[in-house]
Amino acid sequence: MVKSFVMLLFTLFMSASWAGEVTVKDVLGRDVTFNAPAQRVIVGFYPEDYMAIGTEAAYDKVVGMSRYIWEARSANWEMYVKHRPSLQDIPAIGRVDTQTFSVEKVIGLNPDVLMLADWQYKALGTDIERLESAGIKVIVVDYNAQTVERHVKSTEIIGVITGQEKRAATIAAEYKKTVETISKRLADANLPEPKVYTEFGASGVQELGFTFGKNMWGAISTMAGGDNISAPFVEWWGKLNPEQVIASNPDVIVITGYETGAVLDSMIMGQGIDKAEARKRLEGYKKRLGWSSISAVKNNRLYGAYHGACRTILDAAMFEFYAKAMYPDLFSDLNPEQAYLDFYKKYLPVTPEGTFMVSLEN
């Protein structure tokens, strides 16, 4: 009995020695004080980033998450569950965007920290006060904005939450270096900016899908040296008038997709997707009404990209992808798809197989 008591004291001492009170400033400039590394965490968004930065062991401390964003990439989710079956046992807390997010369930899970995306925090409104009144530390991160500053800050914050500050600093530095290298090469070359249009191709050829203004793919294409034709008309995401796309006459078109779509000719990309099938779907967009007059179509400069590779610390490879698509000679040395897979090999316990970028040019 004495031995058991001594072991209990030792365990408590070790826990206390590893956890210490820290204060972080989140992406909204809010000072949040909590014991780090956190012992009970709810991941509201960016679940794959949380594992990449915090390591797989970080999920030993995850007591809840908004699982839908991971399950939406069904093949990716299944790959992780096959590797780590306990992921499917983590309680789901609902969705903020469909108003199924359960404050009561979150409180009942008794987390130390609730990590939310910027948009989730803002959408929850007064519910944040209820969560904080229950003693839950709410920390906001943001990869959706697609800015270097927020990508780096979010990565550093996850590093603190998980006790992986050094790993986070390395990942953030690698991301920043990729963007800075591309930016410097563009500045030195001083070439005319090609016009670029990006569309989420889930709705197929017959219906114009969502495009992106100053965040997500819109921000990536702009930072990679493009003149985003959607920016003057769409702030965040939305649909352009079909005539506007034709009138803007983009030099490069990127159609993004997940592993599945809403219709038979949806753009599909991602894990388990054959490159020939992805290219066939992409080819179909050349037949869209009115698009035959667009420069990108005339010159066969249509590209496909995996929609799941955006708004994440993994998307440094997508900067390379857009840069090479728009300036093929200037960035001929880059291999974006390999860079994407290399991140998995270096920082995650699984590596997907499939098609994550595709072109009609080769």
Automatic annotation (TrEMBL):
Per the database record, which ranges form the Fe/B12 periplasmic-binding domain?
40-338
Please provide an example of a Pfam family that matches this protein in its UniProt record. Peripla_BP_2
Its keywords, alphabetically, are: Signal
State whether keyword Signal applies.
yes
Protein name (Swiss-Prot/TrEMBL):
ABC-type Fe3+-hydroxamate transport system, substrate-binding protein
Q: Which PROSITE patterns match?
A: FE_B12_PBP
The record, for InterPro entries, names:
ABC_Transporter_SBP, ABC_transptr_periplasmic_BD
Q: Which interval of the chain is the signal sequence?
A: 1-19
Q: Which domain of life is it from?
A: Bacteria
